[in-house]
User: Fold Hexosyltransferase from Canna indica.
Amino acid sequence: MPQPYHSAAYDYDDDDDLLKKRRKPPPKTASAFLPSNSPLSSNCILIVLLLLSAVCLIVGISGIAFATAALRRPPRIVTVFRCGRAEDTLRTFRSKSLAAAGREDEGGAARPKVLGVVGVFTQFSAADRRAALRGTWFPSDSDALSRLDHATGLALRFVIGRTKDSKKMAALQKEIDMHHDFMFIDADEDNLKLPHKMLAFFKSAFNLFDAEFYVKADDDIYLRPDRLATLLAKDRAHHLTYIGCMKKGPVITDPNMKWYESSGNLIGNEYFWHAHGPIYALSADIVSFLTNARTNSLRMFNNEDVTIGSWMLAMNVSHEDNKALCEPICSSTSIAVWSNPRCLDPCDLKNKMTELHNISICSNSSTLPPEEEEDER
Assistant:
């Protein structure tokens, strides 16, 4: 007779033992993280906080030390005669002379008020031309230049940019130290086209002088500053005035010709009315507009006089045509004398200027013609 199967109790006992084994907590092993109530953990946190506090303290002390040093540092002396890299060498010379004598320039304003600024365009290679002008109508030293400034209200300066050529700059510096009659403009003379130099001059001159007119002139003309001052001082109803010896003519589209205009297709067959390049004047309101305009927003033609004439078309200016600014010989009314075609480098400018200066009607005649003087009486 088969025996009954009694293995169930045994099985239950085995199950209880198995459950007990499973319920046993796992053995303690080393943990990468210490319990929060561990003394070692508290020490680590304290050390980290102390390190952070020390770093913050060092940064704070360094900031206080830097601020103290900055406040104790003497103020940097900035020459008020500069705009970017623009500079009036006459005023720089006066400032240094007064400082050396322990005096202050009481009349030294950031933008002195004058009737007009006359910028005579020149180059590093044109020392002979400048000498020819200084030997005739252009003042030859700083005292004479200052006297002319006060007598006529005109600030006459030779206008030039900068160069990276140290020899050229050194040679020019000797000339500056002797005459103090330059205006450095914010431009690179080595890579400069005349329209860009013209715009740089007007921007620099406007920031250096508070003038009623700004005059661009070439270094091969014979000028009567007193007569130019009389012209600029006239009462005018229009505040936007463009003064010059006006002209118009066919557009040169032949690249082999001297006055070639690469953008002639934008102009047409004939140029618009504009002033000859050797000398012209712009009123302060016009120059203010040009100063605030973005350079790359203004179209540049090949020729500087055409470029300025095109800008004048975009503005409501008064074109004032004055043939006294372009006479070929001296007369009782001539303001500027220059040859057309102009005297270029091969000609003897020194002899030409000397001959004109020795003519009484060029250099010694009255500022106003006789009939105008009698009318004023």
About this structure: The chain is about 40% helix and 15% strand. The radius of gyration is 40 Å. Residues 39-72 form the longest helix (34 residues). Residues 241 and 318 are 5 Å apart (CA to CA).
